[in-house]
Amino acid sequence: MKEKKRSISYAKWGYIFIIPFFVVYAIFTLYPQLLTFYNSFFENYREGLTQIGPNFVGFANYVKLLTPTSEGTIDILKYFGNTMIMWIIGAIPQFVVALLLALLFTSTRLKLKGQGFAKTTIYMPNLIMASAFSMLFFSLFSTVGPINQILQGLGWLDKPFDFISFKISARSLVALMNFLMWFGNTTIVLMAGIMGIDESLFESARIDGASSTHVFFDITLPLLRPILVYTMITSLIGGLQMFDVPQVLSKGIGMPNRTTFTVIMLLNNYLGGSKNYGMAGAISVILFIITGILSIFVFKAMNRKEA
Predict the structure, then answer these.
(1) If DSSP states are collapsed to H, E and C, what string results for 126-137?
(2) Which of 16, 82, 167, 186 suits 59 as a labelling partner, its CA being 20 to 30 A distant?
(3) pLDDT tens for residues 243-279?
């Protein structure tokens, strides 16, 4: 009888190598998420030196968050709207500029010189802490800052303009900072996606006489869609977690009239003084649900099959 050859299975090593990831994920991500969900059903806060709770209150925290104020507004929805507006204002130019730069840097026809320096330069703002970036802009656009001095020197302003005191200018500054910090990172990711497309497809299109516009819309954009979906969803998630930029720029109160106040700033208020873990947990759960719904919507919208 022929001896059976012993087969060596390497599958177990794959599982062994990914065990550390799941252990770290379970301890530092999954457990805190479950604990946050659990705490959202409890009254648990500090009033002065007195600790109230934890007392089980069911959905009372959610009801309180979604109950209109005396002014007839629901604060968490208002702050969610602020967050989305500032993210959209910054995200649209971010993706447009990033896509244009990615096309320029990966073009085999143009062969731009100094690409290494350009790539490093556009990525550098992403390396600066958002709080430091915000302080820089706060100083630049203050009433005694260089921007006002330049505008007055050119004769465009008679007196200093308080950018933080007007809704449009304050939101625009937040959006501008988010754009400057993240368009470089988005450019690098899109460049990687374009460089992953088979060059023979572009060469065949050029041989057939296709214009650059047709190549972009018929080849580059469809094949780049998975990367675009990824960058869009990650940008959305980061935008909904917007905190440090408006926190520093608006002095933590969402100037003017809380129009730059975000959901995470509301969450921080509950965690700051009163240590209200119940309300903070409820805000986190609502934000998690909204983020999930919007992410699914973006994924479905950008992946719908053309008729």
Answers:
(1) HHCCHHHHHHHH
(2) 82
(3) 989 998 888 888 888 899 999 999 998 887 778 899 9
